[in-house]
Amino acid sequence: MGRKNSVGTANGLPNGLPNGLPNGERAGGAAAGSGAPIPRHLLVMRTSAMGDVAMLPHALRALTAAYPDLRVTVATQAMFRPFFAGLDVGFLDVDVKGAHHSLAGMWRLAAQARRLGVDAVADVHDVLRSKAFRLAMRLHGVPAAHIDKGRAGKRAFIRCGGRGMEPLRHTVLRYCDVFRKLGFVLDDPAPAVRRDRPNPFGEKHGVWVGFAPFSAHRGKTYPEEQSRELVRMLSERYGRVFIHGGGGAEQAFAEEMERTYPNVTALYGKVRFAGEMDLIANLDCVVTMDSLVMHLASLVATPVVSVWGATHPGLGFLGYGVSSGNVLQADMACRPCSVFGNKPCRYGDYRCLKAVTPEMAARRVAEIAGSLPECPGNG
Length: 379
What we know:
Mean pLDDT: 90
Low-confidence stretches: 1-33, 371-379
Strand order of the largest sheet: 8-7-6-9-10-11
Number of helices: 11
Structural class: alpha/beta
CATH architecture of the largest domain: 3-Layer(aba) Sandwich
Helix content: 25-40%
CATH topology of the largest domain: Rossmann fold
């Protein structure tokens, strides 16, 4: 596991103290006001869901900037490693469908973590699997802290549709709060900054736009006919359009669009996560749902137009640093109807998604791209 170097940029503390620590205190010093030692080797656990894992690097960027001598090991699935590019962290691979599927498997994983010298655990997942892990660590004297997901606040937000309520605490900041419970003193992370990354699709000419209409749940998936129309509009206006998605029906839709429009590329099977992130870093804008691609774009500071249906950005899941001015959502009494978008529409027609028209999304993309092409609906 690698040692830590200073990476990324954290906001300055409100009190102007350097490095997010009182009097320049570093890893190995005492926790502020407690006298307890700061951990030297922190294990941070989050094994799913993909979007939530993709928010973790923002919090780690702030932590490692404040504590450059801290050793950090991320316990997650191996396929998520590309999310942490640019951070000098180690990994403890969690095989959630195999060796670590059972509680006994998590106890064995905890033994492996102790052999690495882990002296504190930040559980930013707090599910049965991670609870078993941190219990096994605590029984051997390793302190652990876990996330407060704010479930009561989210239920209240759903009940009133967010009306009269301030946005709830962002998930990234909840991750930072777990670090603070372990004695770390750090400021909230600054948004990611845009950096040069290789382009897996070669030299860029004109404006390139990504479109990610899919999600794990129908309440967060853009309707197919509207997706077709938006692809048509984007392909007519911009140099290249890339459709993000998975296999099955998503792949079939993307490949149909690829056959229909010569400047449209279906990404599934052409790049893995690392290549997809490199591509997103080279895009001028991404139109995305409340899904993984929004969070990948936030990691590489690519502008996002985010479309929301059954869920709501005020629940704490908007891409970190993503502009709230580019959020597209309908003001309807029935939404948000769930935290994760997994409940069926009470009307059966997902009218909240249909209310966000392709013209609305295309107009917002045009504003981000710096020009407003002449087309129906743009006045």
